[in-house]
Write a structure and sequence with these properties.
The protein is an alpha/beta fold. The protein has one domain: Survival protein SurE-like phosphatase/nucleotidase (Stationary-phase Survival Protein Sure Homolog, Chain: A). It has six helices and eleven strands. It has a nine-stranded mixed beta sheet, with helices on both faces. The chain has a two-stranded antiparallel ribbon with strand order 9-10. Helix 2 (about 70-85) packs parallel to helix 3 (about 110-120). The longest helix has 17 residues, at about 135-150.
Length: about 250
């Protein structure tokens, strides 16, 4: 199996190098990831400047590794359109440094990297870690991949996987989890005056949202690996009947 890896934390981040070690047991690994930190860039692509792509020596054994000056979606695009001679069997984005819960999937470069793979009809998974210990990652990721490749038959769906960082003895298993309304991103800003008619706004790092029971946040905090299938169709079909074009003319 040929596996393409990307992320939003940078090509040499701890998460993606650990991921490369884990999945090298089940397939040939190619890395195409941002040259620097790109967290929370969502699904942005580079359209007003050229991308700079460099083949790099990698700290763990992989087939090839590329540093890309753009965002995760750029990395996936350039890899699938040019760097790889054939389409990979699987694309994995991560392992992200921090979870991607609830509404954060909209902002996440990690999740967007997987969605970009889905756009190219490559089976794609996003992995994120709620903490610093990779013990549960080494224990579960290849099992999740095997299950995904066997059971995910929908080409328009990715799996968003959040992994706890608890000790193995507190790990409870793998479960399906609905998205919560939780956000880990700092949506509150403190204002400082710089000079007349100019201000600085500094983000205050505090979580917002409610910890709803039995959602992705709650289940990971309990010690479960939480899998949430995601798709990209934003259309609200329930409102189609309420829109009358004739009445607007």
């Amino acid at each position: 199996m040929k596996i393409l890896l990307t992320n939003d934390d940078g090509v040499f981040a701890e998460g993606i190098t650990n991921l490369a070690k884990i999945v090298s047991e089940i397939g040939e690994v190619i890395v195409a990831a941002p040259s620097r930190q790109r967290s929370a860039v969502s699904h942005g692509i580079t359209v007003h400047e050229p991308l700079v792509v460099k083949e790099v020596s990698y700290p763990v054994p992989v087939s090839k590794a590329y540093s890309v000056s753009g965002n995760p979606a750029d990395c996936v695009r350039v890899a699938l359109e040019d760097l790889l001679e054939e389409k990979p069997d699987l694309l994995i984005s991560g392992i992200n440094a921090g979870p991607n819960f609830g509404q954060d999937v909209i902002y996440s470069g990690t999740v967007s990297g997987a969605i970009e793979g889905m756009f190219y009809q490559v089976p794609s998974i996003a992995f994120s870690l709620d903490g610093l210990s990779y013990e549960i990652c080494y224990h579960t990721i290849n099992t999740i991949i095997e299950n995904f490749m066997k059971n995910n038959k929908d080409s328009k769906t990715i799996w968003n996987v959040n992994i706890p960082s608890c000790p193995l003895e507190r790990y409870k298993g793998i479960t399906r989890a609905p998205l919560s309304g939780h956000s880990q991103y700092p949506f509150r800003f403190k204002k400082y005056s710089a000079k007349e008619k100019e201000w600085y706004y500094f983000p205050i790092a505090e979580a917002v949202g409610v910890l709803e029971p039995n959602t992705d946040v709650d289940l990971v905090k309990q010690g479960y690996v939480a899998i949430t299938p995601l798709t990209i169709n934003f259309e609200n079909k329930s409102q189609n009947a309420t829109i009358s074009i004739e009445s607007m003319e």
